[in-house]
Amino acid sequence: MTQQVDYCRIDGDKLRLWQMIDDACEGEQAIKKGGDNYLPKLNRHDITEQNTERNSQYKLRASYFNATGRTRSGLMGVAFAKDPTAELPSNLEYLTDNANGEGIGLEQVVQKTLSHVASLGRAGLLVDYPATSGSMSKAESAGKGATILRYHPRQIINWDTETVDGVTRLSLVVLKEQSTTRKPGDFKHCDSIRYRVLELIDGVYQVRIFEKSRKGFEEVDSFLPTDVSGKYWQEIPFTFVGAENNDTDFDQAPLADLAQLNIAHYRNSADLEEGSFIAGQPTLAMIGLNQTWYDNNIKDQVYLGVRGGIALPTGADAKLLQASPNSLPLELMKHKEEQMIKLGARLMLPGVNVTATATNSSDKSAYSVLALCCANVSAAVTKCLQWCAQYMGVTGDTWYEISRDFVTAQLTAQDLLALVQLWQSGTVAKSDIRALLRKFEIVDPERTDEEIDADLENEPVPLSA
Predict the structure, then answer these.
(1) 154 has a pLDDT exceeding 90
(2) In whole angstroms, what is the distance from residue 157 CA to residue 34 CA?
């Protein structure tokens, strides 16, 4: 009996939303490749060659300004402005340079995971183990380290849970993977889809691999993972990572609203460029000509500009006709740009003039979402590292933490002067001023008050101007 391992629990609307956000982040090439999913056709029921060519030019002239991708990059830059902190036993330090078994380091795996979570609201991490036959000594286990594999939310197609003694745990996870093979001596790569089924059977974790064949889906491999001591696993070492929490439910995609608005901005751009192309070119109109004079003198050739001239008969006239500009698409674009700024596209327009209050409010909103994503990714990565330690038979503290100490603004010279005046007036203590300067990294956060005071005692007193 053929098993339907490709059954997908994710509905079409959710898949299309994730695809839209991914395309919006990738940029203009991906958006234009999406065709009328993102830019509806003009006169869609007209299938003539002329209308097809018009729509091709309509899309070609449109411009996509990638506010969504820049915002995601900005959020990632903020999250990793300070190096993450981690505690890894010596036997797990190999993960720093090779966490996924393919030469990708732990921080890169974490960055890509956070990128998925901060944009789509979901990702998955699986701890995988090399096949073993019974228990291994430490010498035998050398070079057989556990790996951490990252999955895009579209790859996690099916899952289930069970509750035992009041504890809910995963009992099934189906992962859609792409396998690439190349025969020795051949330059051609062959891609194929396979499904990795993670399942608890009678409380024991097992893995099965399915590939598509003429008869359906054929099981090509299966095994029962064990730890370094040869013990079977009683849980699936897979964790969801979300924008709100790390359970199996779908979380809101943080960049969904921005991506939709960004694509609407792209549509306005298409209308603006189309209108500019049609109405922006002047048309010569000549009045008072008869057909005979036209045929004898014009002959379908009219030269315009300072090096040419047109001799017209008595009573005739010539003028350039040009439509009045349609500023509505441009106004709509500007309105959407303001909305995108409010939604977090701070990197879209450099030097935007907003009040300090508005900037701080916008930053706090964005950072609160980012901070929650960072906390969830940190918790998931910590759990994966602990699974790695369990497999390797390693003890000791094991954790990973992305910094959530985001600097939301910069102090200006006027701000610093105001702080000094507050200290001089006795409103705040000197230690409070220094704490604030450490937060904004104007003073090295590692320097203590005692160290600063000692340096000040050894420095000459500056002369007044």
Answers:
(1) yes
(2) 23
- Tally Cβ neighbours within 10 Å of residue 16: 11
Q: How confident is the model at residue 422 (pLDDT cuts 50, 70, 90)?
A: confident
Residues 231 and 248 in one domain: yes
pTM above the 0.90 mark? no
139-165 average pLDDT score: 84
Do 18 and 72 lie in one domain? The reply is yes
Helices 12-26 and 67-79 pack at an angle, to 10 degrees, of 80
Identify the bridge partners of residue 283 per DSSP, sorted by sequence position: 321
Contacts within 8 Å (CB) and 24+ apart, 289-298: 289/313, 289/316
pLDDT for residue 438: 78
pLDDT number for residue 280: 57
Using CA atoms, how far residue 367 sits from 77, 354, 374, in Å, is 12, 18, 10
* CA–CA separation, 404 and 77 (whole Å): 12
Say if residue 383 is in the same domain as residue 414.
no
Beta strands at 85-87 and 399-401: parallel, antiparallel or unpaired: antiparallel
Q: Does the pLDDT at position 308 exceed 70?
A: no
Same domain, 299 and 420: no
Instruction: Give the total number of structural domains in the chain.
Output: 3
Question: Residue 309 domain-assigned?
Answer: yes
Please answer whether residues 101 and 128 qualify as being in contact, where contact means their C-beta atoms are separated by less than 8 angstroms: yes
Mark whether 170 and 230 lie in a shared domain: yes
* Spatial separation of the C-alpha atoms in residues 151 and 143, rounded to whole Å: 24
Residue range(s) defining the domain that contains residue 300: 282-321
335 found inside a domain = no
342 falls within a domain: no
Least confident piece of the model among 298-302, 304-308, 361-365, 448-452: 361-365
138: closest CA among 320, 315, 448, 392?
Answer: 392
Asked if 135 and 224 sit in the same domain, the reply is yes
406 C-beta neighbours (distance < 10 Å), count: 18
